[in-house]
Amino acid sequence: MRVLGLMSGTSADGVDAVLASFEGSPRQPRWRLLSSAAVPYPVALRSRLIAAGQGTPLNAADVLELGEALTELQAEAARACDPEGRAELVGCHGQTLWHRPPHEQRRGCSWQLLQGPLLAELLQRPVVFDFRAADLALGGQGAPLVPAADAALLPAIGGWRALLNLGGIANLTLLPPATGPDRGAAVRGWDCGPANTLLDLAVEHFSGSSQRFDADGAWAAQGSVDEALIEQWLQLPYLQQQPPKSTGRELFGQADLQQRLSDLATAAHCRGGALSAADALATLTAFTAAVVAQDLARAPAAAELLVAGGGARNRTLMAQLRRRCRGLPLRPLAELGIGDSDREALAFALLAWWHHRGVPGSLPAVTGARRPAVLGVCAHPSSHSSRSATKIGHNRAAFIG
């Protein structure tokens, strides 16, 4: 089956799209990446999304118009990836505006902005969306959801295999080995902490909004790292929390950046100087690497670390990872045929296929939910709803029965 996956992450820089084919066993499918595309958000739309993600109040009309504009851009990305309309199904994550993990007897809640039925009409394809809700209803974090796809798409090796995504938030997947005493262990995964959220906000701050990110880490490479502050920051309660855990701009956003810049400015003043942009970016970049290294040090020893996401193209960040991960072999996930920006879109294509087959897509060991769940809600284009619903129902019955 050909499935289109659409992903727009915490960085809110645009939509990544992949067209993939899946067949065979759901848990170990034969898959092929057929095409990919990336469509950036227009500056005004990105600013509105980031502001909403930082808690800026919106009235009902603003929310509706923002959702409509976002959905239309998702459709544009889908057409750029699949101009011939070969996809039979679409999986779309939407844009996270707010994420509240479960906490102190309060259930979690998460909002991914998307008008699913509109996207189905625009593309004339069934669209699976709202992937987090079922897991949240079962007491889970609702995220991360990609580890289940990692386990299905990538082969096991002789030792634990770690996958790191450096998007807006840094998150890890740990896949158990193919042999040995841990071969039956559960897949692990969690959100480590900040990656490009703080870095991009800092670049916009220091450049007066003339730059959106630190290309290749060149600006950070000119600065000096404040190691004492990094050690202090690593004690943040979230960073000391054990998985399951998930986070986003609610914790690592504009307010958090301002506090860290204040810490940096105070430290620079105590040394008799003023804070430079390069030093701030160098320290924030190193902090991201230190957060990941701290989490890996607490996990089963990995044989290798595969890196994806926009941060994988930041040479300064990658150099910091290599230094702080103390000899752990690092290589790009692209060497296994999944590009830096394709992994999460491919995962949501697979999650949509699993929804189509009636296969649970969540891992309670990762999210903390009471049991696995079939993820997502499917919206059908009006002209195909009856036929598509009947076909999907038959497929589910065949699989479950």
Structural commentary:
It is a single chain. By secondary structure, the protein is of the alpha/beta class. It folds into two domains: 2-145 and 343-400, Nucleotidyltransferase, domain 5; 155-336, Nucleotidyltransferase, domain 5. It has helices at residues 43-53, 60-81, 116-123, 133-137, 146-153, 196-206, 218-221, 227-233, 237-240, 254-270, 277-298, 315-324, 343-357, 364-367, 385-400; strands at 2-7, 14-23, 30-40, 89-92, 95-100, 109-113, 127-129, 160-166, 169-175, 188-194, 302-308, 330-332, 377-379. It has a six-stranded mixed β-sheet with strand order 3-2-1-4-7-13. Helix 5 crosses helix 13 (343-357). It is globular, with a radius of gyration of 21 Å. Residues 385-401 have low confidence and may be disordered.
Helix and strand arrangement:
Layout (H helix, E strand, L loop, with lengths): L1 E6 L6 E10 L6 E11 L2 H11 L6 H22 L7 E4 L2 E6 L8 E5 L2 H8 L3 E3 L3 H5 L8 H8 L6 E7 L2 E7 L12 E7 L1 H11 L11 H4 L5 H7 L3 H4 L13 H17 L6 H22 L3 E7 L6 H10 L5 E3 L10 H15 L6 H4 L9 E3 L5 H16 L1
Parallel strand pairs: 1-4, 4-7, 8-11, 11-12
Antiparallel strand pairs: 1-2, 2-3, 5-6, 7-13, 8-9, 9-10
Helix pairs in contact: 2-3, 5-13, 6-11, 8-11, 11-12
